[in-house]
Design brief:
By secondary structure, the chain is an alpha+beta fold. Among the domains are: about 1-140; about 275-435, 2-Layer Sandwich (Heat Shock Protein 90). About 70% of the residues lie in helices and about 10% in strands. The strands form two sheets. It has a five-stranded mixed beta sheet with strand order 2-4-5-7-6, covered by helices on one side. β4 and β5 (about 365-375) form a beta hairpin. The radius of gyration is 56 Å and the shape is rod-shaped.
């Protein structure tokens, strides 16, 4: 019995009780073998059990709550009734048979009944505790909901604020990008200036020369008319007409060059595609790029080669955009061949490096290929995947923005085309543009 009490109220069996249990077994065994009266043995055992139960009840009184008291009452009744019956039997007290039966019946039922009541009350306590905890959970849940709603509101405000900041940053980035693109356009236009001046100079020289000759022819024609030599006057008039046609031709040529320069510098945001002679466009920008570099550096020189497919005809493009791409590729090609020549890399015996840039076009099915090839130093494989990224450049600081190829890539993609590069490190590079015919 004391073991049960300790287990119920202290949740473990203390060492003294374990010692008591062993001692009781030894004591009962000794008494049994020495001939002690068994009723006296039971009485002593009951008294010891009662004392130990009382001790642990007193020690554990602070944790006795609710249903546990039913166990206490049941134990006390059981111990008292048991002790009373032992006393009656040992001391031969005279009691009625009905009272003795009542005590015996009470000793059998008191503890089981207390256990039954304990279970019922304990279930009630458990249910009450569950309901209480459920209410607490609901309360905590409501608090969490309110906290979550508050956090969501705060998060939404932060997201809204962050979105506003990102939108502003994006607008600033777009504005900066437009400025950089315009700067790149102006930079390429600056490189063209010297070439344009050279190209315009040629037709202007023709215009000046033919104008002077034509002035002399007019004087000669007037003299022949005064002499009455109409036949000679007509011949002079024919020569004069041819000169005027040449003046007109070279004047238009100068006008086309100026028009191209204006188109190159003009914004292309609202530009539309128009039928364009791609061979003429590529040839024009090849010469402009070459003479532009020659004007900046008199020591610069390179062999220019062209291989144009006459079957292409006109294709629908935005000429100033595609011209800008071709100019960038040709300028880069001239740069790398010039750098290779300046580097004076050792060649095989008897060989001399000759810078060479080739521009070609070819019609393949419904596609048009435009190629710019150089015999420079090629592109290292480790940077090949980066060359079309904005601001990436292999040129020294101050010699390139890193936007040229990036803009070229965007322009070609906007035309529904493609641009790729084939290179052999140390030997050559070829940029190939593919456009729809």
């Amino acid at each position: 019995m004391p073991l049960l009490v300790a287990k119920v109220f202290k949740n473990y069996i203390p060492r003294p009780l374990k010692i008591y249990a062993i001692a009781t077994i030894i004591f009962v065994s000794i008494c049994f073998f020495t001939g002690w009266d068994k009723d006296k043995i039971y009485l002593v055992n009951e008294l010891l059990s009662f004392l130990l139960c009382t001790y642990y009840l007193v020690v554990s009184r602070k944790i006795l709550k609710g249903a546990k008291w039913t166990i206490v009452i049941g134990l006390i009744l059981t111990q008292l009734i048991g002790a009373s019956m032992d006393a009656i039997n040992n001391f031969k007290l005279g009691v009625s048979e009905s009272f003795g039966s009542l005590l015996m019946f009470g000793s059998y039922l008191s503890f089981p009944l207390s256990l039954l009541v304990y279970v019922a009350l304990r279930m009630k306590e458990v249910n009450t505790d569950v309901l209480y905890k459920a209410e607490k959970i609901v309360q905590v849940t409501e608090e969490k909901k309110q906290l979550l709603a508050s956090q969501n509101k705060l998060l939404e405000e932060q997201v809204k604020e962050r979105t506003t900041e990102l939108t502003q940053s994006l607008e600033n980035l777009k504005s900066t990008q437009k400025q950089l693109i315009q700067s790149e356009k102006m930079a390429s236009l600056g490189e063209l200036t010297a070439g344009i001046a050279h190209e315009i100079q040629n037709p202007l020289n023709f215009v000046n020369n033919f104008s002077e000759v034509s002035t002399e022819l007019v004087d000669e024609m007037n003299e022949e008319i005064d002499k009455g030599n109409l036949t000679d006057a007509k011949e002079i008039a024919n020569d004069l007409k041819q000169n005027l046609e040449k003046i007109n031709h070279h004047g238009k040529r100068a006008g086309d060059i100026v028009k191209g320069m204006l188109q190159h510098s003009r914004s292309t945001n609202n530009a539309t595609k128009e039928p364009t002679d791609i061979n003429k466009l590529a040839d024009e920008y090849l010469r402009l790029a070459y003479h532009g570099l020659r004007a900046k550096d008199k020591s610069f020189n390179a062999t220019m080669k062209t291989d144009f497919d006459d079957n292409i005809g006109n294709i629908n493009i935005i000429p100033q955009d595609i011209g800008r791409v071709i100019l960038n590729l040709i300028t880069n090609a001239f740069y790398v061949v010039d750098e290779k020549k300046k580097a004076a890399q050792p060649l095989k015996e008897g060989e001399e490096y000759e810078p060479e840039v080739t521009v070609s076009t070819k019609k393949v099915g419904d596609k048009v290929l435009i190629s710019v090839k150089d015999n420079g130093s090629g592109i290292p494989q480790k940077v090949l995947d980066k060359i079309f990224q904005p601001f990436f450049t292999t040129k020294p600081t101050g010699q390139g923005t890193g936007l040229g190829l990036s803009l070229a890539y965007d322009i070609i993609k906007a035309h529904g085309g493609d641009i790729k590069v084939e290179t052999k490190e140390g030997e050559a590079s070829e940029f190939i543009i593919q456009l729809s015919n």
